[in-house]
Write a structure and sequence with these properties.
Mean pLDDT: 95
Order of helices and strands: HEHEHEEH
Number of strands: 4
Protein name: Thioredoxin family protein
Strand order of the largest sheet: 2-1-3-4
Domain Thioredoxin: 1-106
Low-confidence stretches: none
Length: 108
């Protein structure tokens, strides 16, 4: 799992065309809430190797975050075949993150 948010982001169209299951994590490297969610993701992500994880730096003028109407960081958007299944905003427990991943993989 990468520790840094990528300053380059796919376009909304690219995201909609992504096959399979994807987690897009919107945030910034300097965000305390974003740093706090890393241990939660580190516990859950290894159990879901089929889920692609993208860490995207967000901020004003960042079109992908705006297309998902991201307001707070971190926002975790879980997609199946480019369609949002669920999202978490500032999750604070492993169980919340696990629940979201179960929702993502369980509907397939």
């Amino acid at each position: 799992m990468s520790n840094e948010y990528s300053s380059t982001a796919p376009s909304a169209a690219d995201v909609q065309a992504m096959p399979g299951m994807t987690l897009i994590e919107f945030g910034t490297d300097w965000c305390g809430h974003c740093q706090a969610v890393q241990p939660l993701l580190a516990k859950v992500l290894p159990d879901y190797p089929e889920v692609t994880h993208l860490k995207i730096e967000d901020g004003s003028g960042r079109p992908l975050g705006r297309s998902f109407k991201v307001k707070l960081w971190p926002t975790l958007v879980l997609l199946r075949d480019g369609v949002e299944v669920t999202r978490l905003v500032r999750p604070t427990s492993v169980s919340l993150v696990e629940e979201a991943f179960e929702q993502l993989v369980g509907e397939g």
